[in-house]
Known about the structure:
The complex is a heterodimer of chains A (615) and B (128).
Chain A: E1 10-15, E2 20-25, H1 28-34, H2 37-48, E3 62-66, E4 80-85, E5 92-97, H3 101-107, E6 110-116, E7 123-128, E8 131-136, H4 145-156, E9 161-164, H5 167-170, E10 178-180, E11 184-186, H6 191-197, E12 200-206, H7 216-232, H8 234-239, H9 248-253, H10 275-282, E13 283-287, E14 297-304, E15 307-312, H11 316-324, H12 331-344, H13 348-363, H14 382-394, H15 399-402, H16 406-413, E16 423-424, E17 427-428, H17 438-446, H18 459-465, H19 473-490, H20 495-498, H21 505-515, H22 521-542, H23 555-559, H24 573-588, H25 598-603, H26 607-614
Parallel strand pairs in A: 1-6, 7-12
Antiparallel strand pairs in A: 1-2, 3-4, 3-6, 4-5, 7-8, 9-10, 9-12, 10-11, 13-14, 14-15, 16-17
Helix pairs in contact in A: 1-2, 2-19, 2-22, 7-21, 11-12, 11-13, 12-14, 13-14, 17-19, 17-24, 19-22, 19-24
Chain B: E1 2-5, H1 15-25, E2 36-40, E3 46-50, H2 57-61, E4 67-70, E5 73-76, H3 86-90, E6 123-126
Antiparallel strand pairs in B: 1-6, 2-3, 4-5
Amino acid sequence: xSVLYGYGGSILDIDLSTQRVSKSRLEPDFARKYxxxxxxxxxxxxxxxxxxxxxxxxxxxxxxxxxxxxxxFLPSPxxxxxxxxxxxxxxxxxxxxxxxxxxAMKHAGYDVFIIRGASATPVYIAIxxxxxxxxxxxxxxxxxxxxxxxxxxxxxxxxxxxxxxxxAGENLVKIACITHDFGRQAGRCGIGAVWGSKRLKAVAxxxxxxxxxxxxxxxxxxxxxxxxxxxxxxGFKEWTPYGTAEITDWCNVSGVFPTRNFYTGYFPHxxxxxxxALRQPIVTLDKGCFGCPIPCGKYxxxxxPQGSARVEGPEYETVxxxxxxxxxxxxxxxxxxxxxxxxxxxxxxSGGNIVAxxxxxxxxxxxxxxxxxxxAVSFGxxxxxxxxxxxxxxxxxxxxxxxxxxxxxSARLGKGSEHFAIHVKGLEVSGYEPRYAAAMLLAYMTCDVxxxxxRAWAITYDISVGRDKLExxxxxxxxxxxxxxxxxxxxxxxxxxxxxxxxxxxxAEIFPMITGSKETWEELNRLSERIWNLTRAFWVRExxxxxxxxxxxxxxxxxxxxxxxxxxxxxxxxxxTERLLDEYYRLRGWDEQGVPKREKLLELGLSDVAxxxxx
Amino acid sequence: xxxQTVSEKCSGCRLCQLFCALVHFGxxxxxxxxxxxxxxxxxxxxxTVTVCDQCGLCAExxxxxxxxxxxxxxxxxxxxxxxxxxxxxVCPTRSIFLRDDEPAAIKCDGCLECxxxxxxxxxxxxxx
Lengths: 615, 128
């Protein structure tokens, strides 16, 4: 049997209904066709989830997948993808995180964990190289993310890498996340609720075997060169102290900082919550993911009347969604809210959206003090964020409805709340206000999990070439939607590239040294296009009536000109948005409803998928 | 010169472990690295990076005289080591260990190749 270089080599398949564990070989053809990480997740969700499965039922399948570069010797090879049919959207769902979990999977000899069925009682899974145990987790059920991980470290050993859910996941809150390493999250798409529905509290893994590399000496030499280059880039010194919060200033100066439930794109107090405001008073440790030269994890400590909190962050998205969007104007308050949501096990991006949505509903009289459990709420108030956060995690009072996300909540509440429910496809929007940024708006509309920024972070392109310029924008979004998710398939972080300015060609050069595979960077991008079309096909298969209306931007983005900041008075509006979408579908080879055409699927080697969609 | 660690600077990235395994074994396996990283989280939130401080206790206690001083660092002689484990028991910093798939005990030999690649400057050479 030939060695599959760059891979752990095994798929671990666990059925929680029957408690059966089996292992199979990662097939070389499968690896070559879908690369790893997000590509493996996309194909396995398509193959394993029966059509029409309830996202919170035992038929849904949770997949965890690392990539061929995860855990190898190069800068920032830490990424791992968590996927499932999303309970937040009903469509394709995946979310990736750094830390040490993915590398530990690979070093234990695995590329993929498949988790099926549902346990009758709470369990966790412990994987120690070849040994796999499903163990009782009754003593952990109900515990916060931090206490759970700490208890498991004590139970199993400090060298286990552990992914957990918090109480929100147990309570099937649809913004529940996976947390790892006391501060890294696979935050989006409600994957934590899928684990909760399977009564899976945690997965722990320890790896001591490593994995085979095609040419270890060449990888070592090239990897050292990559580190040498990064150490000398100006961006290395600029970004390391502040992490992603460094861009808070730029977003405000550019007028794209989500503020007051995306009412505007400028928060006047931004200098109190930017990277420098974070660094001096509260950061106690620069915390890094596996093999990362630029530790963006700003481990912080705050003491407030509400309590003491130690938290990794806040990173930019949390600064944007709790800072601007909920108008918390002190970095200490944002850090506390960050800690609370992490401990409860909820995504801070969707969380900051839902809290702001609830406050706006309260201000407009759509929900009452009684709905909120007898308390008034307001923007700029940490206690309001804490209160609403706990209502959601515990599904109490209006929190039970808010736990479904802003799309479902606004559909029930009505009274015009749909207009300021800031989501696409049921997933709340990330930390860039895109009303007057054509590429970023289109990127949110067409992102394959709902309104997430990381598939095509096009905002800098908008600002550099002209925000209302339309020519070339759809093409740029398509290009980025292949390039950026390719990194999630390979298992590497984009931070060295996007923020620090490291050239992508180095990854293309080290890829064959690790895998022995001859794909060029262009060919890898083509595989990424295959993955993108497969995730789109998943939506078409799973969502009755899926089509163009699902790519629609939130009402506020289509009709309200930006009221303040650099984009004051500006709006792209509906007609332009529709034109962009037409061009995007055309470039993608999709029909006017946004469904991949048969010939496009055939061209990408997805004939079996075409058969399902077209018979 | 020998290797010295500055735990307060460690980000926990474990690059040193992978680096060490590649230098000494040519393998992509950080578990074979001679450095050990432990974290205490969430409170206070710190890493400790531990490596052999070349105290020599293992060499004194080794019944096979398989650990010798070479350029100020203690190194394990593969052909003499019987993996009896006495060195592991006596090591005050738990910086020497055995693996089923290696013929001899593993410890830091003071090669210092990892030093320039620690992104946090948590690894330094020291005079011994």
